[in-house]
Amino acid sequence: DLQGVAREKEALFQALPDNGISFINLNDPLIVKMNPHTKLVSYGMNTPGADFQGQITGFDENVNVTLKINNEIKIRLKVPGNSMAQNALAAVAVGKTFGIPWTDIKETLESFEAVQQRFTIKQTKIGQIINDAYNANPNSTKAAIGIFSKMKLPGRRVFVFGDMFELGDLAESCHREIGRSIAAASIDIFFAYGTLSQFAVEEARQAGLKQVNHFLNKEDLISALKSTLKVTDTILFKGSRGNQLEKVIEGIQV
To answer: Does 7 share its domain with 90?
Structure first.
């Protein structure tokens, strides 16, 4: 419920004292409509007029971003994707507003690495594993698929997708949307786990993806992965926390 999230964010702005500071993301149309009563500091990607304007100037082979800010400084992140660039820009806005020097901001952001199960990349004996299975919603899953598709990889792209929970009446439509996104991406083999992921499987197959597999228990999924994977493959794991996909990651390495 994006409107519900926006209402909670607006409540946070309204709770600030009169001498507080509101940081406004100009890329968020719901945030832009708000009218905090405090001093405003704005930031955004490709947003002329923002106090802190960010621009992505390049990607490396893992889609890690080089971010240019206010035409003053370039920051080379060790984490991939546009969303992490947006997060870094927000951190810059807060840091500079409170007087932190550019050199300290640059050093800190360039040394930041992804935390466990947040698109962490590890080379193993059965292939390169990307663990992004801490949690999942439709937007984060599509973002992960987008990054995965852009990475320069030596072999096949294998996507292991677990159910996205807590979507209520939107569960079926959201999983179907993910299935279409998978089929449209540069993914070679799709493994789905859970009851809701069946909807993604149906859409991916209908869209023409040939290598699609669906499982309802971890043991069968682990067995199928072991018999399929090659050392040159890269395997992305994405799903809600309740799937416990880390157990699948452990299982395929035994």
So the answer is: yes
**Alpha-carbon distances of 199 from 132, 165, 221, rounded to whole Å:** 21, 13, 17
Which pLDDT value is given to residue 114? 83
**Tokens describing residue 58:** 């390049």
Give the C-alpha separation, 22 to 14, whole Å: 9
Which uninterrupted H or E stretch holds 184?
helix 171-184
Closest to 232 (Cα-Cα) out of 155, 144, 135, 153: 155
Judge if 131 and 215 occupy the same domain: yes
- Which residues, 6 or more positions from 76, have their beta carbon under 8 angstroms from its beta carbon? 64, 65, 66, 67, 110
* Closest of 136, 104, 152 to residue 237, by C-alpha: 136
Q: State the chain's maximal CA–CA distance in angstroms.
A: 62
Residue 46 to residue 67: CA distance in whole angstroms: 11
Q: Print the domain residue range for 233.
A: 120-252
* Predicted TM-score of the model (pTM): 0.85
Burial class (CB within 10 angstroms; exposed 0-12, middle 13-18, buried 19+) of 71: exposed
Query: What's the number of domains the chain is made of?
Result: 2
Number of H helices, E strands in the chain: 9, 11
Residue 250 confidence (pLDDT): 97
> Could you state, in chain order, the average pLDDT of each consecutive group of 10 residues for the chain (254 residues)?
84 96 96 94 96 94 92 92 93 98 96 88 94 94 95 96 95 98 97 98 98 98 97 98 97 94
